[in-house]
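User: Predict structure, ligand PMV.
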Amino acid sequence: MKSIASAPAKIILFGEHFVVHGTNALLAAIDKRVTVTSTFTENKTIKVNSELGTIEVPISSSHEEVESEFRPFVYLANKMIASNQNVNGLEITINSDIPVGVGLGSSSACCVAAASSIFGLFKKLSDSEILKMSREAEKTIFPDLSGADLYVCAAGGIIGCEVDNTISLHSSTPSVSYEISANLVIVNSMIQHSTKRSVEKVRRFKENNEKRFSELCDLVTKLIGDDGTRARGGALDNMKNNDIAALGLKMTENQKYLEEIQVSNDTLRDMISSLKEISLGTKITGAGDGGCIIALVEDKNLDKVPALLPKDKEYFSAKIDTKGVVWSTIEE
Ligand code: PMV
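Assistant: Predicted complex:
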């Protein structure tokens, strides 16, 4: 039997970095996916095949014994094997069209799809089980992340996320089904970033600027408009009313906060300013210091994008993917 699960990439519309410190964030799943296929083998090994390479380790190996990019898969395999007798081996294959290391949630999507696929050899996991397992798996490489990405990769659509300090993630806006009637243009700086390093840098900024950081957290919460009162005029409200001009202005405002906490750089600023005349709002998405930006661009201006961008950057127009994790099995 093959157990197959796929999960989408994500963008962060508002609130990256601040979400690590307890504010809300607004995220969207987009139409690029990773697919993880798991099968039993008789080889007494855990084998993982991905574009990053292949590993095959004895079935008793701990995740700590393998290179970091393979750890979540071995962790999940171990967990599954520990709770099910008679597993003689496992092969896990990852196929992805999500660019790696540029803020589109590749590792979170992998963890979500892997949890669903590996455990799916025995049973369909519930959404909350997928979140729990993928969170544990992601922590084997990124112990300090918020986990917000996992939520949107599992659920799909547009989601407001709030993360408390325990394992639990909860969506503050569980049923946001708004559409954004403009294009979300994603531009890749082609500079890979280290989320871990950027998160550490922001933590230092916070330690040295406690008061300002707390003000910025409040500003982000207000920007999203999800401060418990569903504040009028916040981004959620703008989406509901299809006010893309106001939404764009908020993205630009959010970018100012990201500049202030120093996760931007000249390359990203150049990319943002190159789209200034046609974008309703542009910001970093994800950790920054490289990675991608998102620009909100109306249909009438979409064909102007390539001429405005620096030649060495890649771009695409993302569609919101309302499907989160999708699981199926094939009997062989
Ligand atoms: O760049 P990415 O996809 O790794 O996103 C990181 C998002 C942060 O808010 C910076 C970290 C987090 O844990 O939420």
